[in-house]
């Protein structure tokens, strides 16, 4: 992506973030690394951070990936992401737990939500002019 100067404001859902943590060198990890590297800009709200923390440290993932790697991924998010606290609470997703990503995307004027949730978030693409893409779809953007 050398020479790419288009800035994309990005929201990551928790399922995609945990996929990035679980699978080194995977498409989700590549998408995550792009989102936290300029010119792209990952955005984060307190609600989304809370969900990341809850999902990232679920005991069921202990046998797949070390807690240290999950902590590192979360630390990268905390340092790299721009903070945005939504004023509007969106209630438009069939899964109400995913509304926090829509609220963040609207408040932060995101260009893309990166999700692995085919049934809920990806099914809403596009939403209010915001692309909702799989990690591979996000990586395909130039």
Walk me through this protein's architecture.
The protein has a single domain (9-140), classed as Rossmann fold, CATH 3.40.50.1010. 41% of the residues lie in helices and 11% in strands. It is built from six helices and five strands; from the N terminus they run E-H-H-E-H-H-E-H-E-E-H. The chain has helices at 14-22, 27-35, 46-56, 67-80, 99-107, 135-140, and strands spanning 9-12, 41-44, 82-83, 112-114, 131-133. Helix 1 (14-22) crosses helix 3.
Which helices and strands appear, and what pairs or packs with what?
Blueprint: E1 9-12, H1 14-22, H2 27-35, E2 41-44, H3 46-56, H4 67-80, E3 82-83, H5 99-107, E4 112-114, E5 131-133, H6 135-140
Parallel strand pairs: 1-2, 1-4, 2-3, 4-5
Return the string of H and E elements: EHHEHHEHEEH
Annotated CATH architecture: 3-Layer(aba) Sandwich
Distance between the termini: 8 Å
Mean of residue pLDDT values: 94
Query: For this structure, what is the CATH class?
Result: Alpha Beta
Silhouette:
globular
> What multimeric state do the chains show?
single chain
Radius of gyration: 14 Å
Structural class: alpha/beta
Please give the order of strands in the largest beta sheet: 3-2-1-4-5
The beta-strand count equals: 5
The H-level CATH homologous superfamily, spelled out, is: 5'-nuclease
Uncertain runs: none
Helix content: 40-55%
How many distinct domains? 1
Quick summary of this structure?
The protein is an alpha/beta fold and 142 residues long. The protein contains six helices and five strands, in the order βααβααβαββα.
Task: Give me some keywords for this one.
globular; 11% strand; 5-stranded parallel β-sheet; 142 residues; 5 strands; Rossmann fold; 6 helices; alpha/beta
């Amino acid at each position: 992506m050398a020479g790419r100067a288009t800035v994309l404001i990005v929201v990551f859902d928790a399922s995609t973030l945990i996929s990035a943590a679980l699978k080194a060198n995977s498409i989700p990890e590549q998408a995550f690394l792009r989102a936290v590297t300029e010119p792209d800009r990952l955005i984060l709200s307190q609600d989304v951070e809370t969900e990341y923390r809850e999902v990232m440290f679920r005991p069921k993932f202990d046998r797949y990936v070390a807690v240290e790697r999950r902590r590192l991924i979360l630390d990268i998010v905390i340092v790299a992401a721009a903070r945005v606290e939504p004023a509007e609470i969106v209630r438009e997703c069939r899964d109400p737990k995913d509304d926090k990503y829509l609220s963040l995307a609207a408040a932060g004027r995101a260009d893309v939500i990166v999700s692995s949730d085919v049934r809920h978030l990806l099914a809403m693409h596009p939403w209010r002019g915001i692309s909702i893409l799989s990690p591979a779809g996000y990586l395909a953007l130039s």
